[in-house]
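Hi L., both proteins are below.
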Amino acid sequence: MLDRAGWHTNKNLKRFDNLTLVPLPPTSPELNPVEQLWQQLKDNYLSNRCFEDEEEIVSCSCTAWNNFTDKKDAIRNLCSRDWAMLKC
């Protein structure tokens, strides 16, 4: 799945015969897995807070990421769709 970023739509992008590239519809962040991840981090760790400085923002962001990734299958569950099953 491609989010239509310029480097994903470049004509020089290497294509593979056994891989189908599927562009996401325009203005559909709910379908982009990384948007789901950022929303989860904001909702559970980073929203409704005041930070003292940039260092505290970075520290809290790192802690949020580490707490999230410590949960077994958190990213897979968050980014999974019934219609798109990934085999790992």
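That was the first. Here is the second:
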Amino acid sequence: MDTVVVITGASSGIGAALAEQLAAAGASVALAARREPALREVAARCPSADRVLVVAADVTRRSEVERIASETIDYFGRIDVWVNNAGRGITRMPSLLTDEDVDVMMQVNVKAALYGLQAVLPHFKARGSGHVINVSSLLGRVPFAVARSSYSASKHFLNALTAMLREEIQQTHPGVQISLVSPGVVLTDFGNSALYGGVDSRTLPGGQTAEEVAAAIVKTIGTRQPDVYTRPGSKAQIAQYYATIGSDVA
């Protein structure tokens, strides 16, 4: 796989698993996250150290995301795929949400992805090709978990933004794809790391491993499909939910 891939949120979970799988397949990877020691550990598990770049950066800051792009291009000469994987959850009922709660979810789950796309897009347009993958969530389609309301809302925003950006960009640059990948429950420490804490995601039923989700992202890099669910049956589950709510005006 002669591909250069930037992965945000690469220090653990899905991002770390994705880095290892891509590196094992021969890709070059730029690993971005705030925790440099954790990034170094992930890099050490990847073969061929010369094909791994560690960039300690805070993706909630536009200038830091732009630095990820420039350092990757300086090191590898190009970027082929940019995976916006960084994200954070929250556990708080919607009636209790504060301005800060909403701001954090939007900054991490929406703005960071927008910064990534806008940082790499000029490079992709100049080359006439490229692929952005935004990692969303099944909660971005269906508001199942009330305590995850602000997280769910931020992922709904990301989904709409992804679709509109794809439509805009492919009108002039059809070689640039923007994909959305939506996992369900992932068996990581995501729940424990949520704002205000939360249920350990590894204890929830029907979950997938980070490796399974990463494999779906690797496949999406190959197929360039625009919209992907990582868990079988998710599309039907969403359709069933919306079939039971709402009604037409009589």
